[in-house]
Amino acid sequence: MADLETARAAKRALAARLANDRRVNGVGIGGSGSNYTLKVNIVSADDHPNLPHDIDGVPIEIAVVGNIQAHQ
Q: Among 13, 14, 62, 70, which residue carries the largest CB count within 10 Å?
């Protein structure tokens, strides 16, 4: 279980690690209370970074969201 401050620190570390990985669309925080998680949005289930199960005790969840494009 991870509190919000721990989740925020873990998110910064993971986001920095994945910043230049084109297979990743974003890193966010999910959950609430003492049950925070990190959510990693990826483009494809077939080609994604090798991620640990958690960072500093904060579990990582992976979501396949596909390509994200801005609407004009």
A: 14
